[in-house]
Amino acid sequence: MIKLFRFLKPYRLQVVLVLVLVFLQSLAELYLPTLMADIVDRGVVQGDTSYIWRIGGLMLLVAGAGAVCAVGGSLWAARSSGGFARDLRSRVFAHVERFSLNEFDKIGTASLITRTTNDITQVYQVLTIAMRVMVMAPMMCFGGIVMAVSKDAPLSLVIIAIVPVLAGFIIFVFRKAGPLFRAMQTKLDKLNLVLRENLTGIRVIRSFNRVEHEQRRFDGANSDLTDTAIKVNRIMAVMMPVMMLALNFAGIAIIWFGGIRIEYGHMQVGDLIAFIQYSWQIMFSLMFAAMMFTMIPRAAASAARINEVLNMTPDIRDGAASGQTLASGPSLEFRNVTFSYPGAEMPALKDVSFTAGPGEVTAIIGGTGSGKSTLVNLIPRFYDVDEGKILIGGVDVRDMPQESLRKLIGLVPQKAMLFTGTIADNIRFGDGQAADEDIRRAAEIAQAAEFISGMNDGFESPISQGGANVSGGQKQRLAIARALVRKPGIYLFDDSFSALDFKTDAKLREALQSEIADSTVIIVAQRVSTVMDADRIIVLDEGRIAGVGTHQRLMQTSDVYREIVASQLSEEEIA
């Protein structure tokens, strides 16, 4: 957790101010019982009214100063800890944004959400308390002991005897609760994972009548977290009664033995009142410390999880070359590319080589699991190749800055993803500076203008999260329009025509021809009708290239391609 405190550097002056204010507040609280003892012994007992007024006024002044310091300390502690949490969340989010898909697979999306929200909140809460308690608790404890000893050394043995007992008990609770708090954060990850899958997959769950099964699955994760939380709370629930019991027994002992010492003239009444005040200050400082220590195990577990994210070095890093000069129709070349997913027994792609030039349409077709989407994901460096090279304009993509590389690419993913906002916002996602005319033209080419005009607000019609309020075909067309408005040098269509009917598919591909004439186009498709007119068709089979050529040539030379065609087209259509 100490490693995370480097994010407090911008707030070090505020932190110092908090510590100073808390120090002054503690001094005021330690001084007040002494003033009270003086009022009782010299003012009340001796009947000196002027002394009472004078010392009483000083007490009010000291109490007021202490209150101002307390308010100021709380204010600046909240500001600095809040800024710390804000900066830490921003740093974690920015760091996660640089992760490759491999890092996302390792940690998991649900866990990353928990670490960015709940875990940082745990650290923030401890920091807010710690900035005040870490100064006040030891000062009130040791300062109170010193002041109590100064009032009556023999009676202070009662406090000196009880403090180690309470400290030992706090350490015992700390060691017992620590592992459980760490387990709670892991189980919270699991609960978030189940909840997220249920919310995003509600259509599938209902269509297969798996609601009860998912309810049992959620109840299992929820009960697991609840059981651990109950164990923690049982341990923590013992602390307060034990602390209060010790505090009250100490109070009884102080009053008992203090009364005896007053009877024999070894102590005055005011000193006993001050002594009781100091004992309460000492005990409450230990209670505050105990409350903080109970939060530390969970915060420490959260800090470790946050550090795990921050210390994870992304597999994919920026290269030194510039891709800006390649914006006008760069060529794309795969040179002996081999790639395996982490932990996989077999490569997803093996020794793949081909070249796609500007103004050409290169189609990739193959059976399920043949590596089509994997090939597309390697081009924008979502993953890096194990062997071989991917060259854009003759430059290895690993030598290019990721931002420059991705500026060259317009990707339409296999699963069309839309964002909350309007239709115009989603199309403009491809180019934040796109004019309204560019957005309309992109929608027309993508065959989306007709259904957009039929909506109440046209391009200002709202899109819900994930595009849940539009159909699959409409989502695909909006995703295509988003790529078109970018006007990139390389288009990647990853099975992005699958939800379109044949008529719309044909009209869209016809409209695309003039728009992408100077660009390098890669189309991944399952339909033969989508790829028949391509300049080059690459047939993938189990991660290897099983054939390259035009439709007519592959019909003569590739058994795999003929099988795919025969499974989709009739003999008349093939002829």
What assembly state would you assign to the polypeptide chains in this entry?
single chain
Distance between the termini: 70 Å
Average residue pLDDT: 85
In the CATH hierarchy, the third-tier topology of the largest domain is known as ABC transporter transmembrane region fold
Indicate the low-confidence ranges by residue numbers: none
Q: Strands of the largest sheet, in order across it?
A: 6-9-10-3-11-12
Structural class: alpha/beta
* CATH-assigned homologous superfamily of the largest domain: ABC transporter type 1, transmembrane domain
Sheet having the most strands = 6 strands, mixed
* Count of separate DSSP helical elements: 19
CATH architectural group of the largest domain: Up-down Bundle
> Can you tell me the CATH class of the largest domain?
Mainly Alpha
Radius of gyration: 35 Å
The shape is elongated
> Count the strands?
12
Helical amount among residues, as a percent range?
55-70%
Number of domains: 3
Beta-strand level of the residues, as a percent range? Answer: 5-15%
Overview of this protein structure:
It is a single chain. With 575 residues, the protein is α/β, with parallel strands linked by helices. It folds into 3 domains: 2-311, Up-down Bundle (ABC transporter transmembrane region fold), CATH 1.20.1560.10; 316-408 and 488-575, Rossmann fold (3-Layer(aba) Sandwich), CATH 3.40.50; 416-487, 3-Layer(aba) Sandwich (Rossmann fold). Helices cover 63% and strands 10% of the residues. Strands 6-9-10-3-11-12 form a 6-stranded mixed sheet, sandwiched between helices. Strand 4 (387-392) and strand 5 form a beta hairpin.
